[in-house]
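Person: Show me a sequence?

Helper:
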Amino acid sequence: MLKKLQVKNFAIIDDITVKFGAGLNVLTGETGAGKTLIIEAINMLTGERADSELIRAGQEKLTVQGYFDLTGSSKSVKFLIDENLAEDNDDFSDIIIAREVSRQGKNRSFINGIYTQVNTLKNFGKCFLDLHGQHDHQYLLDQGTHLEIIDSFGEDIILSFKENYHIAYKNFMDSALKLIKLKKQQSEKEIRLDELKIRLNEIEELRLKDNEESELENEKNVLKNHEKIFKLCTALLNSLNGQETNEDSLIDSFSQLLKNVSELSQMDKKFEKYLAEAESVYPLLLELAAYLKDYTDNFDYSAEKIDFIQERLYKISEIKRKYGMDIPKINEYLQVLKKEIQQYDNLDQDIEQAQQDYRLKKEILSEYAIKLYQARKTVIQSIEKEITSELRELDFKSSEFKVSHQFNSNNAGGALLEIEGIKVKPLPDGIDTVEFLISLNSGESVKALRKIASGGEISRIMLALKSIISGVDNITTMIFDEIDTGIGGIAAIITGKKLYSISTKCQVICITHLPQIAAFAEHNYFIEKITQDSRTKIKINKLKQDKKIKEISRMLSGMADSEISMQHAAELINEINSMKNIIATDNRESF
């Protein structure tokens, strides 16, 4: 439950601290006094949107801090531990949640002093706090929310079936998408295969080698300079072998040099290092002479060969430009083409396997879909009885609440299941469509809730729903912002009784304009606007018994100090205290 709330620089709130108690806490005050700001501040602690425009004029940041006792919410404790925000042996009776918003737009959230993402805070808030605001009327009238309401009420029964369904649904959709993709490939097979084979043949015909381009460029350069190369080679060969001259050849001269150095080294060891160097050069001269002889003997020049090389280089250049790759990458791409062609060759087999997998996943999905449907059916039967009972307690004496629960037979596209002979379209949350139906008068058939209920009736129907959820042990605090919309008279007393009954199971914080509801409170708070130092701010006072009577007197007649009104207020409180004793006794006995 919320033990204490501290709010600073929030709209017209200067700096306030409110201590809430267990049971029913009621906030009252004149219209426009700022009661809803308290609810908005609590909302911030559960991750709702916070805007820098809410910062009080002249201040740099707003802060909201709440102290919660969450020992009664096992889901909250588990969340904190799972998110590494608490340890098993921590004290969960004093969990601190804080929000800060600055003029610069910085929005920071903390749980027990640990910085936390707003989305984490929002998920955490769902574990222990439930809020009914003025806009929840539309929430209840929206058929799209009804399945969510059913699942939240029957979470213990439905959750495991829903989780299994989600897994099966994902697997089924993945299988369906894979099959669609393969069939699309099959429809494009001939065109794509022709394209792939043209590319494959084009590349294979060239028989590209990784270093071929540089080798061809070198060979082209040799052929272009063939005359000069042949002349240089001949001159070198003559120098080495002494051909066409009367002089000794370089090889003969070097052989004599080597012989002389060898004799010197035998007489003086200092020449040995020169002998070693000379001996290494001599074989090189012999090898060069042999290479030059073979090179000149086999030197082949033809204009046709140059043309061939240039044409080959052009083809290589064109294919590189076409595919935007160098030769090694083109050769890698060749393997990719072969692999893709092979895949098309195996496509029929792949489609057959994908169809088998699709049928299997479809059977599994159908199995879990039926189980989830049946689980919801069980929960719906229970909810129909409980809400009808709650509505009758809320003075709908002849009411009947039903839930239309059907297969989703909207077959507009997508994969379908066949269940009980009906074509059903699976959705992410099941195969169900539900809608709340109600009859408020005897003899009338049930109709869609959105078509027949007035604002006041919707408030009480929502209260019936909230009354059921209050029995869930995870929710420690329920907040009602003007649940009294559109009601009065005996309905106000009944609503007050129901709020008090809920407050015996969990903490309730309620804003109301009705004295009948305020009289049921165990903790009354009066909110008023005041002017101090030429600035408007709000003030909250927790009312003792005499002040409570005075406030209810004001709510009854508009005259807080009227003797008659004060008397009526005291009588109302006494009568309601008697009702509270009966409710408390009945609730204790039911437990």
About this structure: The first helix runs from residue 35 to 44. The chain has a mean pLDDT of 85. The chain has 20 helices and 17 strands.
